[in-house]
Amino acid sequence: MKNSEAIEKRRTFGIIAHPDAGKTTLTEKLLLFGGAIQTAGAVKNNKIKKTATSDFMEIEKQRGISVATSVMAFEYSGKQINILDTPGHKDFAEDTYRTLTAVDSVILVIDCANGVESQTEKLMEVCRMRNTPVIIFVNKMDREGKDAFTLLDELEEKLDIKVRPLTWPIGMGDRFKGVYNIYDKNLNLFQANKTKREEEIVSIKNVEDPLLNDLVGDQFAGELREELEIINGVYDDFNRERYLEGEVAPVFFGSAVNNFGIQELLDTFIRISPSPIGRETDLRRIEPSDPKFTGFVFKIHANLDPKHRDRIAFLRIVSGKFERNKFYHHVRLDKNFKFPNPTSFMAQDKSVIDEAFPGDVVGLYDTGNFKIGDTLTEGENMYFKGIPSFSPEIFMELENLDPLKSKQLDKGIHQLTDEGVAQMFMIQPGNRKIVGTVGQLQFEVIQYRLINEYGANCRFSPKNYFKACWITTENKEQLDSFIKAKGNHLAKDKDGNLVFLAETQFLLNMAEQDYPELVFHKTSEFKLETN
Ligand code: G4P
Asked: Which helix (H) or strand (E) holds 218?
C-alpha cells in the first residue's frame, strides 16, 4: 500500500472519561460495530476492576491482560480505526496522559447525571495543551440526569472549550424518547437494545412535520422544536476546521449500554476526525507524509512473568513506513536496532507485522533499551516533543530494608521509573530517593514488583509534598538565592534537572512571587524546548 493511501485511511484516537462514565462500554460497542468482537463483555473482562484497589496482584494480572487491548484496531466504512486504550483507574492517570500524546483525537464520555467530574477536567487539560480535537458523548441518557442545556454550559465553562450539539435528546430517564440528529435531520427512536445493532431511524427533514408529534407525542415534539430554535440561536454552526484546531467540540447524546446513539457518533467520527497528524521535534515538524520513518515510544508494558524481564514498548509511527527487521536509529542511545517481531493488535488478537504506517502503534519487544519518550528514526538525531512527565501528586521516600540488596533496589527502581510507573527525585543529603506518583496504588505495585522481580525489599514513608515543579531560568543570581533559601526542598530528577518540591499551593505561589525570574514548570515538557 502507498503511504498516502495508508495515512488517509487511518484514524487513531483515544476514549477518555472519569471512571464509571461508560468508557469501557462505549469502547465495546464501537468494537461490536466494527465487527472486531462478536460478544459483549470481551473488553469489560480486561478492565481493572475498581473493587480490586488493594489487591495489587490482581491488578498486575489485569494490567498484563490489558496488553492485548492496549490498541484495538478495526476496519469500519473503509477506514482503519485504531483505538488506544487508556486505563480507567485514576491511579494510572499518568499512563493515560502519555497515551494521549499518541492519539490524533479523542472522544470524551460524560455521565449525564454527573456532568464534568474531576478526572474529566484533568484529562481535558492534557488535550487542551496539545489542541487535540475532541468529540463529546453524553452517556446514560436512559437515566435521569442534568438538563441538556445546563450540561452544555457546564462543559464550556469547566473544560474551556466551545461546544456544538450535533444531536439532541428528547426527554431523559424513563421518559427518554430518542435523539434528533440536527445535521442529518432524522430522529432515532430509543429502544433499550443491548446487543443488536439496528436502530429505528426516521427521516424528519422539517421539524414542523406532524409525524414528529405522532412519534414522540405533542409535548415532546413541542419541546424539541423550541429547543432546536434555541440551539440554532445560541450556538454557531458546526465548523470542522475549528474542531480540528481543538476549539470547538461537537456533542452527541446517547446510551452506550443500550447501544443507542453510537452509530451517529461513529459515522460522524469517520467523517470529521483527523487522519494521522504530524508532530513537533526539536529540529522541525515531522509530517506523516515525510518519506523517512520516525516514531516515538509512549508506553512501556512490563512482562508479567518475572522470569522473563522483557517488556513491550509501544511505538507510535509518525512518518514513513516502519518495516520488520530493518535497522533503525535509537536516538538517545545512539545505537541501531532491528525488530524481528513487531506486533500489532487487532482487538483481541496479536500478530507479527511486516510493515506499519503513520498513525499505527506497534509493540516492540524490549530488554530494557527503551524509555518513554524515546525516538526512532532512519538515522537523524532528533527528539519528538510533547511526551512530558506530569507533576506527581503523591510523594513517598523509598527506604531500603535490606542493605545487601541496594544494587538490586537501585536497578529495579530505575527500570520501573523508565517504564513510567512512577517518577523519581533525588534529594540531598544522602541521595535519598523520593518516588512520586499520581495514585496510591502505584506504591503497592512498585513494592510488589521490586521484591518479586528484583529481590529488593523496601518500605515507603509519606512525604508531605504538594507538587514537584521543574525550574528553569536565565537569571543565575536569582536561582542561587532560591537554592540557598529552599535547599531543603530541592531535588534532581533522573536526568539531573532541578526540581522544587513544594509543600503547599501557598508556598508554591509565594516562591513564584518572590522569584519572578524563575519558571516553575508543572510538566517536564520544557526540557526539549530549552535543549
Ligand atoms: P468506565 O469504563 O468509564 O469506568 O465505565 P463502564 O463502561 O464500566 O460503565 C460504568 C457503569 O455504567 C457500568 O455499570 C455500565 O454498565 C454502566 N453504563 C454504561 N453505559 C450506560 C448507559 O448508557 N446507561 C446506563 N444506565 N448505564 C450505563 P456497572 O454496574 O458498574 O457494571 P455492570 O455490572 O453493568 O457491568
From this structure: helix 218-234
